[in-house]
Amino acid sequence: MTTSLNGKVALVTGGSRGIGAATAVRLAREGADVALTYVNGKEAAEDVVRAVEAEGRRAVALRADSADAAEAAEAVDRAAEALGGLDVLVNNVGVGVLGPLEDLSLAEVDRVLAVNVRGVFLASQAAAARMTSGGRIITVGTCMTQRVPGPGGTLYTTSKSALIGLTKALARELGPRGITANIVHPGPVDTDMNPADGPYAAGQAAMTALGRFGTAGEVAGMVAYLVGADYVTGAELSVDGGHAA
């Protein structure tokens, strides 16, 4: 297994905070130059750029809305042009809309599927066109594709479940070219969107075997492992504290 990413270029979508930000910094620590996308939170994205640069690597923040088909694909090309190529794509961007099935609007359905499915597909398609042997496509899923703990997650779980099929198909299609594709399923993770001390945290932690939230850094560690793993592809790897146990 390769442990150094020196000379490699990675793109982390939705990289301005949470798991995306932690992943960007972790890959930089391993030696990669990193591009990241954001929609809102330009200042947060610039903070991540500075953190990557503090690791001695190049970085660029690109505003791109994955709900826009053109922007989802163009972000890959912009990242490659800015940093001189592309070796790693981390499909981290995603939106979560939870609620009773009967209350979900068509607009919500369209946006969630556009960001979580179409945007990931188009970014992967664009990345595959640029990658050579050794390329990596890693997608962030969710523990809810393995175990749905209660009502309200129909739309979100549908969108993330589609990424499992995409990952396995990418692995088969790109394997002959030496490119791997894998998906990581985080459990409850302490981020600003779902803090470990939030109003629903105790119930989420209780559903895990370890009885606690994970950290963004723990998920980033799994992503970094997959970037270095040569003989792992088409796999689902859980970083969920035993949520699915």
Describe the overall structure.
This protein has 245 residues and is α/β, with parallel strands linked by helices. The protein has one domain (9-237): NAD(P)-binding Rossmann-like Domain (Rossmann fold), CATH 3.40.50. The protein has 7 helices and 9 strands, in the order βαβαβαβαβαββαβαβ. The strands form 2 sheets. The protein has a 7-stranded parallel beta sheet, with helices on both faces. It has a two-stranded parallel ribbon with strand order 7-8. The longest helix has 25 residues, at 106-130. The radius of gyration is 17 Å and the shape is globular. It starts with 8 loop residues before the first strand and ends in a 6-residue tail after the last strand. The mean pLDDT is 95.
pLDDT under 50 segments (min length 5)?
none
* Rg on CA atoms, Å: 17 Å
Largest sheet: 7 strands, parallel
Can you write the helix and strand succession as a string? EHEHEHEHEHEEHEHE
CATH topology: Rossmann fold
Q: If strands are numbered along the chain, what order do they take across the biggest sheet?
A: 3-2-1-4-5-6-9
What's the helix count?
7
The oligomeric state of the chains shown is single chain
Strand content: 15-25%
CATH class: Alpha Beta
CATH architecture: 3-Layer(aba) Sandwich
- Domains counted in the coordinates: how many? 1
The CATH superfamily turns out to be NAD(P)-binding Rossmann-like Domain
What is the tally of beta strands?
9
